[in-house]
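Researcher: Final request for today, and then I'll write up notes for the group meeting. The sequence and the SMILES for adenosine-5'-triphosphate follow.
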Amino acid sequence: MTRSLRARLFIGLTAIILLAGCVGGVFAYIWAFDEAIEMQDSILIQLGSLLQNGSVKSEQSLRGVDADAQVDVVELGTAPRGSAEERQLWSFQDGLHLASRQGGSMRVLLRTRPDGSRFAVAQRTAIRDEIARNMALRTLLPIAALIPCLLLVTALVIARSLRPMVRLAEDLDARRADDTTPLPLAGTPSELHAFIASMNGLLERMTLMMDQQRRFVADAAHELRTPITALSLQAENLAPVDLPAEARERLAALSEGMRRTKHLLEQLLALARHEAGPCSEAAVVPLDRTVKDLVADLLPDAARKGIDLGFEMIEPVATRGEPVMIAAMIRNLIDNAVRFTPRGGRVDIGVYREGNDAIIQIEDTGPGIPSGDIDRIFEPFFRGSRPSEEGTGLGLSIVKRTVDRLEGSVLLKNISGAEQTGLRATVRLPAADESRV
Ligand SMILES: Nc1ncnc2c1ncn2[C@@H]1O[C@H](COP(=O)(O)OP(=O)(O)OP(=O)(O)O)[C@@H](O)[C@H]1O
Ligand SMILES: [Mg+2]
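Model: Predicted protein-adenosine-5'-triphosphate complex:
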């Protein structure tokens, strides 16, 4: 048995429709056939009456009326005479009979005129049956035409009835993985309410579990930050100490490892901060100033790689949100541009206003993101299919969560010009009016 409810309903209803159609058709056929035979009998009787009272005279004129009906009039005279068949006809009483004549079965009507002469009106049963069959078959036409229409209507009704379920599934499919808002009951059929209630219960439990997990990550990152900072300080304190070359090499590796761990903890904390409930310190953040500060911070990194990091366009524009988060978000984008752009490249930054949106655009001359990676690039810990530089894979998830929280958007687009490639990251945030600070 098929698992699809739609297919099951359709097969079941189709079987019922076909069965009803067949049973109805058989009964309609039998009934129409009998009616047609009776009608032909009454035509014979009417003809007999016409011939009896002399309104119609000869056999020929009868033939002229309806050649297909092939009605014969046999004059039998006033006494038995002629062939054996005619004598047999004579032996019948007045009325309708079945007789065999000229090798076939016939329906005959015998009548006696007032002057005593008798005649028979005869018609082949084969012809009568054929006429009746044709008439009966014609009554089947509407039923035959109705069945496909009914099947079509059934399919439409089923599809329509199941649409709320399909819509529910689409709704769930389209959700972000961390979206646990309850499913709405409004507009859904009552049969689905129990299912939706169970789903909402599950979503609620998931929210609780995710909250616990986030709190755990945030707490763990926070707790680890202090010892790592202390360790980094200890390592720094070793710098002025006179050490053998091999020890110095190991110390450098140790410091680098600690720097990376610190970066991971910072990124984890930045990510966990988003989940910690509603915006706590929403303020008007001047984006131009924030970006300028970040660029000043990252200039040494860029200079070390010989990358020309600069502004293409910078306008005073602000948005509303948490300054630390917004700075972490922009920092991650500029950091990516600088890190993934090869030596001697260029990173251009634009900060401007477009209608009611504040735009931050960062364009680099790096390799861009492979098109196969674009769909997953915002997932935490995803570092692309060809991770070249070190990294945690958390940067872009921080960016995505920040813009989602600020009801903005981020778009990553590969630039593929004739002689150079690159990535253009465009962040769009609702602009805030600075005058209303
Ligand atoms: N400007 C860019 N040019 C080319 N590839 C990029 C660019 N920005 C990001 N990517 C790719 O996307 C991946 C994910 O970036 P993301 O910022 O999330 O993590 P990361 O940079 O590896 O780690 P982190 O940001 O924590 O240092 C990167 O590893 C890189 O492969
Ligand atoms: Mg990054």
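Model: The CA atoms of residues 85 and 101 lie 6 Å apart. The chain has a mean pLDDT of 89.
Researcher: Thanks, that's everything.
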